[in-house]
């Protein structure tokens, strides 16, 4: 089964055969760094994405396991980033953040804006999460305490200073979380079981890209949030014919994309199941252009 893919790395390629590549924005391109989910997969890193404008990667969204390696392979530069956006605090979406920030002072001088979700009972908010990682007193990675404004640790490469913002995942309306450098980024809280999670919509150069993150697909406001986007990246985490309290079924993924009237659907966060059957289920509802995600794949936004 073959779908329209631009600059794709074959989905089943051995990691030893994943070619390093940088995207070229035309003028805007979305690149998948990690197209897999939380389970160990020899072919897919966990969730992470770049948005390229011209020859620079300007947005990094999520930093799941493997994002550190894929970021290097993409030839992106930390110094070029305008924003890092985190959807939620599951390891397969944020575990490589410390690795990416380690010794980042050697790669970037300017502070790095970063946004993540608010918390709920039993799930910390993004600022507290960062404090527990990098806090000067009790942080797990105190060598990165400079990311939160503390003096660098002795004999440490340290990390670039973070400009942290927290978006309320409980709000029913979208919130603008970044409007600078030609990027306007809005966030919307979406249902992912009890876990505070954000979807993001990016508008730049006259086009729009929506990152769905993990969700059940049951919030009708998300359809309005994604409506008319040139590209919608949706997560297809479960197999055809199955249900989950955390993830949309392939049938729901297809329905949401169809109702939103998007220009192209990219499937990502792909689990270990019969991929052809899941894509066929998506296509029962969605009739537009479709791309099956793969690590380091580049898709021009048109």
Keywords:
single chain; 302 residues; alpha/beta; Metallo-beta-lactamase, Chain A; seven-stranded mixed β-sheet; 25% strand; globular; disordered N terminus
If you had to describe this structure to a student in words, what would you say it looks like?
This protein is 18% helix and 25% strand. Helix 5 crosses helix 6 (250-260) and helix 6 (250-260) runs parallel beside helix 7 (275-285). Strands 6-5-4-3-2-1-14 form a 7-stranded mixed sheet. Strands 7-8-9-10-11-12-13 form a 7-stranded mixed sheet, covered by helices on one side. The two termini are 24 Å apart. Residues 1-19 have low confidence and may be disordered. It has 302 residues and is an alpha/beta fold. It is globular and about 60 Å long. The protein has helices spanning 67-74, 91-94, 97-101, 126-134, 220-226, 250-260, 275-285, and strands spanning 28-34, 48-53, 56-61, 83-85, 112-117, 162-167, 175-180, 183-190, 197-204, 207-211, 231-235, 265-268, 290-292, 298-300. It has one domain (15-300): Metallo-beta-lactamase, Chain A (4-Layer Sandwich), CATH 3.60.15.10.
Helix-strand layout with pairing:
Layout: E1 28-34, E2 48-53, E3 56-61, H1 67-74, E4 83-85, H2 91-94, H3 97-101, E5 112-117, H4 126-134, E6 162-167, E7 175-180, E8 183-190, E9 197-204, E10 207-211, H5 220-226, E11 231-235, H6 250-260, E12 265-268, H7 275-285, E13 290-292, E14 298-300
Parallel strand pairs: 3-4, 4-5, 5-6, 10-11, 11-12, 12-13
Antiparallel strand pairs: 1-2, 1-14, 2-3, 7-8, 8-9, 9-10
Helix pairs in contact: 5-6, 6-7
